Amino acid sequence: MSLHTPQFHLDGYKGASKQVEDRFFTAVEVSQIDLRVLAEHHAPDSRHSYYVLHDRSVTWGIPGEPQLVALHLQRDTGARTFRFDSTQLPLPVMAQSWLIARGCPTDAIRLQPGAGTAPADDTTRALEARLVGDGDHFALLISYTDDISPECPTTVMLRAVDERSPKPFRVLLEQSDMDAGTHTLREGGFDTFHAVTQWWEAYWSGDGVPLPAPPPAARPAVSPAVPAPAPAATKPPRR
User: Low complexity composition bias: which ranges (predicted)?
Assistant: First the structure.
């Protein structure tokens, strides 16, 4: 199934304000030709639309930037106006979680066939299911997507919103097997910001440092909407 450019169904609508129209053009419309729909859901009453989008233009921009866009469109069908909220995120599960937190039904925003690689194992499937359905415990600090290396790795650094959480710093590591069309997703837990940044720098320098396991009793998840409570690590240079 080929991926298509998004249709926003805004014919006859205008932004709820000039600022909304300007932001929508800058954040979404200007790159619409490079966007591809990975998942979408439209409410039966047409008041809400939810999208997980891949932005192909990012690969030509700042190295390592997130390549996915989560978009929530809100229409006033009586006034014929719209508002929107959007964010760039590094992993599909994070985009799905962000949209679910804004009212999208969980089962309605699954990736369509052909939208990227498939989970390679049960560990990946279980972790993705948890991150999609439990998105209010961790804040996104930084991510890095390497779309040049054969494994196309993406690393995501998180911090627990609850400071009492064990191993409050987490890393998500996604690696792909493009020949098989699959990917693995793993999670590691760290006690301190220093420890997580040490692992991050070692990984991107090519040292092959193992990812430590998170505490089994914890319920970590991704919450891109929560502001990062700690300074972000420096992004590694593109190799």
Answer: 219-239
